[in-house]
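A protein record pairs a chain with a discrete description of its three-dimensional fold. The following entry can be read in just this way.
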Amino acid sequence: RGEYYRCRPGRDLVRGLVYPVPDPRLPFLGVHFTRHLDGGLTAGPNAVLALAREGYGWSRVSRADLAEFIGYPGVRRMARRWWRAGAAETARSLSKGLFVRALRRLAPGVRAGDLEPAPAGVRAQAVRPDGGLAHDFVFARGERSLHVINAPSPAATASLAIGEELAARVCGELQ
């Protein structure tokens, strides 16, 4: 799950998109600022485990989804490898102050009062059996279908270049 804050109007914290230098070992950008076409500004997202397929908040828990998630060996291996990163993300989720501290590395003038909660999103993240996180698109072919089972960025899913790649793969299978 990625949690966001909406920046209150009137504070000119940043003028455009501002990103931290990402950790190349992880397929996440880290909290950042996004300027929207309407002039609004959002901060986030973090990256915390969703406790349900549609777990948009900490209170949404699905025992069945959680059991399936924990039962997958790759998830346990991932947790052993990345527990520090996961703990830091969880802390930022539970503490607005820590979230603000991460944002201050990008915009030192940001204050907790500048931010109000915004809707969260749930992003599917493919975890390999060895515990590695897929950093790019993962495709699975069905008898008459092509499934994208890891789409690392919402922006990329709307990309014409990605659409062309999918079309080429489907057309290549039909010939």
Notes: The first helix runs from residue 63 to 71. The chain has a mean pLDDT of 90. The chain has five helices and six strands. The CA atoms of residues 13 and 108 lie 9 Å apart.
